[in-house]
Specification:
By secondary structure, the protein is of the alpha+beta class. The chain has a domain of about 190 residues. The protein is built from 10 helices and 10 strands. Its EC number is 2.3.1.225.
Length: about 375
């Protein structure tokens, strides 16, 4: 329950059939525990597939272009284990963010029977979404892609094909963090590869071809020696041809730099939202409403499900059993309701509407 000032209504879908709670279809039976959440959105599915493809491309270049051909086995093993671990955690976080219910409000629960069961008192209101016919708890917002109201919705991310909300924000934060780390790791390895391996090859080329250039065509080199392939480098840069290797590495640099910048910004934005207890939508709309805010550390612990531990970085742990909404979570207390032109009261109060002491169903 929260204390809010007079509500200013949005001009969306104000048809009578949306405003009448008795017109709402009763909500379907709750899905069985463990049912997978998946949004059937073509754009989101395509973005998710592209995300996996880019990570697997980086995996291919790092392993088969840089690490496996290298003769420094310690360097290859350490970096290979580190990169593969980070890539695995990134893809696991992506799957959890995509397949976890972000906190969807039960669809179609704004029925007359349910509203009456809340036993609203004078001065209390419930907010109804006209699009999905659901009663909206505090800080819930409707997503036009998911077609549901999402609790504590931050934004809809096409890269994970899901909303970022109350139940999956941890996985989205981990996804952005691990993608940023593997991008940085890949860029560092590409830099070392260019500086070390290519520099050594170029040096050997100069050393091998230098004496040849100084001698004339009548030098003491037999025709047989001229036809022999010149062994230049003691360390192979790649099992691919030099042009192919350069192209693959340049593409990896471009991908790594782009994703490093993008995911670092998203990671910082999400951490700021968690610490300030303000979602991205709330920040954009600037809802300066008097509501109770949790402290920074308390909000962080609620998002990552407990005190600081290694489970914070584990995409396989998280909200074991999301807290169900109680009757008080559906109800909001108003300070004044002077603007009543677009409000709807329940049948018991429709004949005796008052500015402050009324039980109302408000379309938001």
């Amino acid at each position: 329950m929260m204390l809010i000032p007079a509500h200013h209504f949005r001009d969306i879908e104000r048809k009578p059939e949306y405003l009448q709670p008795e017109k709402c279809v009763p909500p379907p039976h709750p899905s069985p525990v463990g049912t997978m959440w998946f949004i059937r959105d073509g754009c989101g599915i395509a973005c998710a597939v592209v995300t996996w493809f880019l990570v697997l491309y980086a995996e291919f270049v790092v392993l088969f272009v840089m690490l496996i051909p290298s003769r420094d086995y310690v360097y290859s093993i350490i970096n290979g284990i580190m990169f593969n671990l980070l890539a695995f955690l990134a893809l696991a976080s992506h799957c959890r963010a995509m397949l976890t219910d972000p906190g969807a409000v039960p669809k179609g629960n704004a029925t007359k029977e349910f509203i009456e069961s809340l036993q609203l008192k004078p001065g209390q209101v419930v907010y109804k979404c006209p699009k999905c016919c659901s009663i909206k708890p505090d800080r819930a917002h409707h997503c036009s892609v998911c077609k549901r109201c999402i609790r504590k919705m931050d934004h809809h991310c096409p890269w994970v094909n899901n909303c970022v909300g109350e139940n999956n924000q941890k996985y989205f934060v981990l996804f952005t963090m691990y993608i940023a780390l593997i991008s940085l790791h890949a860029l560092i390895m590409v830099g070392f590869h260019f500086l070390h391996c290519f520099e050594e090859d170029w040096t050997n080329l100069l050393q091998a071809y230098g004496p040849i250039r100084e001698e004339t065509a009548e030098a003491r080199i037999s025709l047989h020696e001229k036809k022999q392939p010149l062994k230049v480098s003691s360390t192979e840069c790649s099992s691919f041809s030099p042009p192919t290797t350069v192209i693959l590495l340049i593409l990896l640099c471009f991908e790594g730099l782009l994703f490093l910048i993008f995911t670092s910004v998203m990671f910082g934005t999400q951490v700021h939202s968690i610490c300030t207890d303000e979602t991205g939508i709330e920040r954009l709309k600037r809802k300066h409403q008097p509501r109770e805010r949790t402290g920074s550390w308390k909000s962080v612990k609620e998002t990552f499900d407990g005190d600081f531990s290694l489970n914070w970085f584990n995409p396989f742990s998280g909200l074991r059993h999301p807290k169900p909404l109680s009757d008080g979570d559906w109800v909001r207390q108003v300070a004044s309701l002077s603007d009543t032109e677009n409000t709807e009261t329940t049948e018991e109060q429709s004949e005796q509407r008052k500015d402050e002491d009324s039980v109302e169903v408000i379309d938001e």
